[in-house]
Amino acid sequence: IPEGLTVYEQAITINPFIRTAHLVTKPQQIGEVIFGNIVGIVDYFYSQHVSLTIVTDEAISLINQWANEDFLIVCHFADPDTGGHVYGLKSTEYRRQILHNDIELGRLLDTLAINGILQQTTIVVLGDHGFGCPTQYSHKCSPNTFIVSNVSIPDNLFEVDITPLILNLMR
Fold this sequence. Notes:
The protein is globular, with a radius of gyration of 16 Å. With 171 residues, the protein is an alpha/beta fold. 42% of the residues lie in helices and 13% in strands. The model has no long low-confidence stretch (mean pLDDT 82). The strands form two sheets. Strands 2-1-3 form a three-stranded parallel sheet, with helices on both faces. A two-stranded antiparallel ribbon has the order 4-5.
């Protein structure tokens, strides 16, 4: 990613006091190899092939530390994506991974509530692609990435729309 163009760099331009974290469970695609230029820019960079529970624990720790500050935390949970590719979208394993994803998201929401900042925190949950046409390895079935948010955003977002959306929500 060219220097100056990551969501983190642009967020810092909007708010020089914002705290930032990049927490991912898929280091080969969205870890240091691709996002290496942000390692010295974000306040916290974590990129390991680990359970999404560990990434959630890291995010919870940061939320607890930064509860009285502005922050942008990006968490990537690879489990549902991996499960869809490996087991298929009708599999029990894939459904279990989606449920686990929801449980971890619930833990994040609970942490925001406990810190008294849930109501003023913008939350955007995204998927990176859909599955199933013509095979479970195809990424072209659902080019839209939007899943859910606690603020009003357009229903037909594409991956290229995410950074501008987040930056616009920060203004």
